[in-house]
Amino acid sequence: MNNSIDAKNLSCRELNSRVKKRLEDFSLLGEDIVLTNVCGQRYIGDGIQAAANIKVQGIAGNNLGAFMDGPTIEVFSNGQDGIGNTMNSGRIIIHGDAGDILGYSMRGGEIYIKHNVGYRCGIHMKSYQGKVPVIVIGGRAGNFLGEYMAGGIIIVLGLDSERVNRNPYFF
C-alpha cells in the first residue's frame, strides 16, 4: 500500500480526512504516512490518538498537532501559528521556522524547532498528571516566551546567529 498522500489542491478538511482514514488501517500504525505538496493546510494531525508517524513535505498550516496524543509529526520546512496547541503527548519536529503561539497550553509531549519561533510560544504551558511538556528552539524566540507558564521546559539555544539576524521576527 502507498503511504503517501498528495496534498496538492486538497482542502485542509479533505487532507485530514485522508490521514485519519489511513490511520484506521491498523497495519499502518508505526509506519510513516508521507504528505507531499503541503501548502499551508491547517489542522494536520489534530486530535490523533495513535502511534502514528506523519512526515510533512511542505509548509504546515496553523494548529499542526493540536490536541494530539501520541503521534510523531515531522515537517521538512516551516510551520505556521499554533503548532502543538493543547498537545497532550507525542513529538513535533520542524526543520525550519515556526510562527506564533507554538505550544499554547501544552500539557505533555515534545516540540523541536530547528530555527526560530515567533511571539508568545509556550504560553499557558503546564505539567499535567506527571507529564512534562518540552519545547526546544534552535534559534531565537519572540517576546512573551513562556508567559503564564505553570510547568514544563523551554530551551532556547540561540544557534545560527547570522541567520537569526535576518529573521523578520527580530530587530
What does this structure look like?
This protein has 171 residues and is mainly beta. The protein contains two helices and eight strands, in the order βαβββββββα. It has helices at 12-24, 161-164, and strands spanning 4-6, 32-39, 53-59, 69-75, 89-94, 110-113, 134-137, 153-156. Strands 1-2-3-4-5-6-7-8 form an eight-stranded parallel β-sheet, covered by helices on one side. Helix 1 (12-24) links the parallel strand 1 and strand 2 (32-39). The longest helix has 13 residues, at 12-24.
Condensed summary:
This protein has 171 residues and is mainly beta. The protein is built from two helices and eight strands; from the N terminus they run βαβββββββα.
Number of beta strands: 8
The overall pLDDT average reads 91
Rg estimate, integer Å = 15 Å
The structural class is: mainly beta
How do the helices and strands follow one another from N- to C-terminus?
Answer: EHEEEEEEEH
- Going across the biggest sheet, name each strand in turn: 1-2-3-4-5-6-7-8
Approximate strand percentage: 25-35%
Terminal-residue CA separation: 48 Å
Task: Count the DSSP helices.
Answer: 2
Model regions low in confidence, pLDDT < 50 over at least 5 residues = none
User: For the report, how would you describe the main beta sheet?
Assistant: 8 strands, parallel
**Shape field:** globular
Share in helix: under 10%
What keyword list fits this structure?
171 residues, mainly beta, eight-stranded parallel β-sheet, 25% strand
